């Protein structure tokens, strides 16, 4: 499955933290309904390629969204939008 390139959505030189930009973009997809409840996100590695960032950056963004109750991470199964 080819993922849409979203690297142009990330400002690597500006003052905003890169992980926060990724989190905001995913949150926007959740809010708009582009990512429906129960939808499975791409893997960390796939998202890193999609956004042009490191896997650690994606992991931090996912952690933030999970802490805020927007995502749930199920070990061995993936990351899902909460219902």
UniProtKB/TrEMBL annotation:
Keywords assigned: DNA-binding, Transcription, Transcription regulation
Q: Which residues form the HTH gntR-type domain?
A: 16-83
Q: Name one Pfam family in it.
A: GntR
Judging by the UniProt lineage, the source's domain of life is: Bacteria
**Classification via InterPro entries:** Bact_HTH_transcr_reg, Tscrpt_reg_HTH_GntR, WH-like_DNA-bd_sf, WH_DNA-bd_sf
Name the chain's protein: GntR family transcriptional regulator
What organism does the record attribute this protein to? Nonomuraea spiralis
């Amino acid at each position: 499955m080819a993922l849409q390139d979203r690297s142009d959505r990330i400002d690597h030189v500006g003052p905003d933290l890169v992980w926060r930009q990724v989190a905001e973009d995913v949150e926007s997809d959740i809010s708009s309904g582009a990512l429906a409840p129960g939808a499975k996100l791409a893997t960390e590695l796939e998202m890193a390629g999609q956004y042009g960032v490191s896997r650690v950056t994606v992991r931090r963004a996912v952690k933030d969204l999970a802490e805020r109750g927007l995502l749930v991470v199920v070990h061995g199964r993936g990351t899902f939008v909460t219902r």
